[in-house]
Design goal:
Layout lengths: L20 H8 L5 H12 L1 H4 L4 H7 L4 H10 L5 H19 L15 H22 L2 H12 L4 E4 L3 H15 L4 E4 L2 H8 L7 E5 L6 H12 L3 E6 L5 H4 L3 E4 L13 H20 L1 H16 L15
Parallel strand pairs: 1-2, 1-3, 3-4, 4-5
Helix pairs in contact: 1-7, 2-5, 7-13, 8-13, 9-13, 10-11
């Protein structure tokens, strides 16, 4: 993998006026300095209580300095501490309104959990990942991504592991509406494909962490050939994001037991659906016709009610 850093500047932090403050903090968490991360963790542990603390009290709770709290505010796109307190109070009220009583805190699956508790934790995490991702998704950037994909000569999609399944889902959707799309889950094949890309093409790379070399390298290679590059990641300041023209973000809270495999995939699929529907809407009539044709191609493979065997085998 090339050693030099991409020359493109890091994308700005999401606008907290348009996105959920807590979602923005969670998205920034992996890239924060250790002292700022302690501030973020103190805020996320109890946003309502944090909104009532003075700046020195929050700094003490996070075992850091007042200057670090101020730096944390600027990192997440908030001008000063009073604005952070107001944003946290509003965010806490929003979560209470959405969820009624405050739900069970997000924790990993334990060895003693009942099946009911496992279901509750999984559903809680996935619902909130969707809500947070929707709140933090920059629709202006999404619109530019839709424009790029809708007008592309070809679309190449890169992803490995769990992200590969998301890439395959987008590939199938685009193919069904007549778009020339490819999905690459092998690093060598992906790099080979980028050699044929150029201006007018789109390369879309998917990585929860934004640091997977097998995904980052093909994206950078596509950019070097002049393709428009799109990153889908949970970390807006990751290497993948810094190397992309457009960055679409998720806000999934993974835990060690389910790291990178479940909640992140649900959030990625939701953002991919938003991108696909935006592209499909650009040519509504042609899309509808293509979907009908592709549906009809396999319709004969479905059994009619009269062909289905009864439970008794008659």
């Amino acid at each position: 993998m090339p050693q030099q850093e991409p020359s493109r500047p890091a994308p700005p932090a999401p606008d907290t006026a348009a996105a959920g403050t807590l979602a923005v903090i969670r998205a920034a968490l992996p890239a924060l300095a250790p002292s700022e991360r302690r501030v973020a963790e103190a805020v996320l542990a109890d946003p309502a209580q944090a909104s009532e603390l003075s700046i020195s009290a929050l700094a003490g709770r996070a075992d850091t300095s007042v200057a670090t709290v101020m730096r944390f505010c600027r990192t997440i796109g908030i001008a000063n501490y009073p604005q952070l307190r107001l944003a946290l109070a509003a965010a806490a009220a929003r979560e209470d309104a959405l969820g009624g009583e405050r739900p069970v805190p997000v924790t990993d699956i334990s060895a003693t959990d009942t099946l009911d508790e496992i279901v509750g934790k999984i559903i809680y995490n996935e619902v909130h990942a969707l809500q947070d991702s929707g709140a933090a998704l920059d629709t202006e950037v999404l619109g530019r991504a839709v424009d790029a994909v809708a007008g592309a000569r070809r679309i190449d999609i890169f992803g490995v592991g769990a992200s590969a399944f998301v890439g395959q889902d987008l590939h199938q959707k685009l193919h069904r509406i007549g778009r020339t799309a490819f999905v690459w889950t092998d690093r060598h094949a992906a790099l080979t494909a980028t050699a044929l890309l150029g201006p007018g093409d789109v390369a879309l790379a998917i990585s929860h962490s934004g640091e997977t070399e097998d995904t980052v390298e093909p994206l950078l290679a596509a950019a070097a050939h002049g393709a428009t590059t799109i990153a889908l990641t949970n970390v807006p300041r990751s290497t993948l994001a810094r190397g992309a023209d457009l960055v679409l973000t998720t806000c999934a809270r993974e835990t060690p037991f389910r790291s990178g495999a479940t909640v992140s995939r649900i959030a990625q699929l939701a953002v991919i659906d938003c991108l696909f529907v935006g592209v499909a809407q650009r040519s509504y009539d042609a899309t509808t016709a293509a979907l009908e044709k592709t549906y009809g191609a396999v319709q004969h493979r479905r059994r009619s009610p009269s062909q289905r065997r009864s439970p008794t085998g008659d």
